[in-house]
Amino acid sequence: IETKNNSALLSLLEDIHYADIAEIINELNEDEATYIIKLLNSDKTSDILTELDDDVRESILGNLSAKEIAKELDELDTDDAADIVGELPKEMVQQVISKLEDREHAKDIVDLLRFDENSAGGLMAKELVKVNENWNVLTCVKEMRVQAENVTRVHSIYVVDDEGKLKGRLSLKDLLTTSTKTHIKDVYISKVDHVNVNEKPEEVARIMSKYDLEAIPVIDEIGRLVGRITIDDIVDVIREEAEKDYQMAAGISKDVEADDSIWELTKARWPWLLIGMMGGLGAASIISGFQEALTKFPVLLIFIPLMQATAGNVGVQSSAIVVQGLANDTIKGAIWGRLGKELLLGLVNGLALAFVFLIISHFGFKTTYLESIAIGIALVTVVVNAAVIGTFIPIFLNKRGIDPAIATGPFITTSNDVLGILIYFSIAKVFLGF
Amino acid sequence: IETKNNSALLSLLEDIHYADIAEIINELNEDEATYIIKLLNSDKTSDILTELDDDVRESILGNLSAKEIAKELDELDTDDAADIVGELPKEMVQQVISKLEDREHAKDIVDLLRFDENSAGGLMAKELVKVNENWNVLTCVKEMRVQAENVTRVHSIYVVDDEGKLKGRLSLKDLLTTSTKTHIKDVYISKVDHVNVNEKPEEVARIMSKYDLEAIPVIDEIGRLVGRITIDDIVDVIREEAEKDYQMAAGISKDVEADDSIWELTKARWPWLLIGMMGGLGAASIISGFQEALTKFPVLLIFIPLMQATAGNVGVQSSAIVVQGLANDTIKGAIWGRLGKELLLGLVNGLALAFVFLIISHFGFKTTYLESIAIGIALVTVVVNAAVIGTFIPIFLNKRGIDPAIATGPFITTSNDVLGILIYFSIAKVFLGF
Questions:
Q1: Which end of chain A, N or C, is more open, meaning fewer C-beta atoms within 10 Å of its C-beta?
Q2: Which CATH superfamily is domain A129-231 in?
Q3: How is A172-219 classified by DSSP, letter by letter?
Q4: pLDDT-derived band of residue A75, with 50, 70 and 90 as boundaries?
């Protein structure tokens, strides 16, 4: 369809939502994508740009002039515009900013660039509706009409004092249902949830979803209202956070998608595969150390995979529960209580597994009683150990300020694999006396 | 603090947000919790109830009379009220409903009970602001003021025809910035995103976050506006979905938390541990079958854990990417293309791992050239196989309408463990000729 340029294409795309057009463009090659972006006018393309995959957007922006980019940015909210400017090459940033028509807008974008992307300041937009506490409702409504022109969704009206400090809020609903001649000072609600510019995005997400907020004002170090974060940005934060944790648990270290290049995918997976391999080689040296014993009791070796699989599974289960509990703030109380509980849980699960094992190994694999008992006890110990390690490592990392999610997946599996095999042979040695 | 009843407690709790009180109550015992709920008045306790853990809420409601429960429900939005009614024992439901003061509210709650919890109908609330297309703006504003009293957040004003069919929407902002004497028919926006009552919650979440919506109207089979879903409910859906997938990947089959009882935690973990154990025992029989070979080439056995760990890791990585891609709808194109890509990716990763292995095994474990090469080739095959299986199973399950997330974690690890060991010995057999 995209080979010949025509106005038919234009009218075709007119009725399609920008998020859908973005999906189509993600599938096109660079030339076709640039062609479409140039064809459409900037109030639509600016929204499309925000929805594109990072790499597609980068290549399209590379084909646009500073002036064309500035035109797109003029149409966008400050937070989205700042995100795009942040991705531009350094030499381009100044050119683009200087070509922005709306100077107030340009100032806001530059302000936002100062903030760490990974903070409330990096998420917030400058667009909001605020009124001074000293105004009366009439001035307030007039001012609001002007301000509302620039704000996609109004949500709350924030009340500030003469220094710009956040004092409270007025709800839109109150404004619809109240008489029109009062002082703002006398009607505003002084309790308003807010976050500091330096707050972490995950914490903002937690606060907003706990209190069911759809927008939250952001204040700076001295309490001045500097911006606003809306729930749609928080939905993205929650999704990204969940994806990151999920991928980390699966041993994928960077944010990749199924459609990325083989090279990107390999880079993301390789470190974890290497860790797994080192674990496997570690296990190999342990087995080498016990090789004489294995010639005496060859039955021991056939249960190596069982020990390894069980240790890995238990470790991942324990760590996943703890990591999730830490993320949701539902883990309270002392670390020792937690470890004690996991120990007990490991003991219950381990004994149950050992019971099943004893029956199957005796009838299925014709092990001697002594061998069965030795392996059964090893199994319980391996399970308890894996449960305790799986609980301890994430809590330990969290106390040290490291993201505990890194502890799930290959990391915990590998260490439990190796430890499990070591415990297995050590206990067998004690019981079978080789 | 809770031993002596006093009004001091009441004034203390007055200034605390209901979500925070709910967190405190979750930590108390049943009597204390019930005592606090009875102490506070129902406009606050009703909100607290919605935020409590399921089991805590259940035990508190068990201590309240039908009339007390009805009083709480009168304060709640229809969707939250219906959720609570849905949790009550059957004989209680009718009593509670009959005691509701607001009969319109009671009717709405009963309507909502009809819907499957796992559908848009089960998520939506009846509270919304709607206007008839035949009204003029004046009537409309008057009506809105009345309706807005019952709606916590207005968001959009929906426009319906005489039969109640959804025609479009009016934005609040337009109403703030437009003159007051026009017909609704002439000013409403006829394009409005909406979902069907039978739509799945995950699909509603996808649509709302794709189009950055904060509320979406729900229509029934013949197009009538029956309710509205707001973004705060969708945030909960996204969180729950992410937690479920994460736990499934870790081999935990029910929604449990770190603070649940040992019995609950055991039930959730046990099935997966058993699958892992069966896998381990399966591997044991495979090794038994090759036992003679192992006495001739004992070096083979020390690399069993390596094969198993690598197969497991690769399988989980591949399946996690595919599961996530399926959830985000970013996997396009034919299944064969996807499999081909994973095959290539597996080959690249496998060859790289085999290269590292060859060097380490030669110098570290003094394997012969033939042994090294046989094991290296087995490693590549195991990796490719795990990648293909890890890709194929989730796609296959998805086509069958089964949640592909079940394929990650222990399920894929276990099958790859067993297959990996089988492949390992089979290839070693071919090369070493035992």
A1: N
A2: CBS-domain (3.10.580.10)
A3: HHHHHHS-S--BHHHH-B-----EETTS-HHHHHHHHHHTT-SEEEEE
A4: confident
Quick check: A306 and B321 CB within 8 A? no
Q: Going edge to edge, which strands form the sheet with A225-230?
A: A195-196, A215-219, A225-230
Q: According to CATH, where is 1.25.60.10 located in chain B?
A: 7-117
Instruction: Name every residue whose Cβ is closer than 8 Å to that of residue A231 and which is 6 or more positions away in sequence.
Output: A208, A213, A214, A215, B214, B231, B232, B235
Neighbouring CB atoms inside 10 A of B95's CB total: 14
Q: B249 contacts in A (CB within 8 Å)?
A: 246, 249-250, 320
Compute CA distances A253 → A193, A243, A246, A272, B348, whole Å: 35, 11, 10, 8, 18
Structure tokens at B366: 């003094």
Side chain identity at residue A353, one-letter code? L
Chain B closest-CA separation from residue A316 CA (Å): 6
Contact A320 B246 (CB under 8 A): yes
ipTM of the complex: 0.75
Whole-number pLDDT of residue A1? 56
Cβ contact B309–A279 (<8 Å):
yes
For residue A73, pLDDT over 60 is answered with yes
Question: pLDDT for B279-292, tens place per residue?
Answer: 888 888 888 888 77
Extract the tokens encoding A431. 């019981």
Class of the CATH domain delimited by A262-432: mainly alpha
Could you say which of B145, B210, B352 has the minimum Cβ distance to residue A19? Answer: B210
| A7-114 classified as CATH 3.40.50.40 | no
pLDDT digits (tens, 9 = 90+) for A301-349: 888 888 888 888 888 888 888 888 887 776 666 677 778 888 888 898 8
Q: How far is B210 from chain A (nearest CA, A)?
A: 7
Nearest CA in chain A to B210: A19
- Residue B113's contacts (CB-CB under 8 Å, 6 or more residues apart) are B82, B85, B86
pLDDT-based confidence at residue B93 (cuts at 50, 70, 90):
confident
d(CA B111, CA B48): 24
CB contact (8 A) between residue B325 and residue A252 = no
Is 3.40.50.300 the CATH number for B7-117?
no
- C-alpha to C-alpha distance for B60 and B157, rounded to whole angstroms: 37
- A325 contact residues in B (CB cutoff 8 A): 257-259
Determine the residue of chain B that is closest to A246 in CA distance. Answer: B246
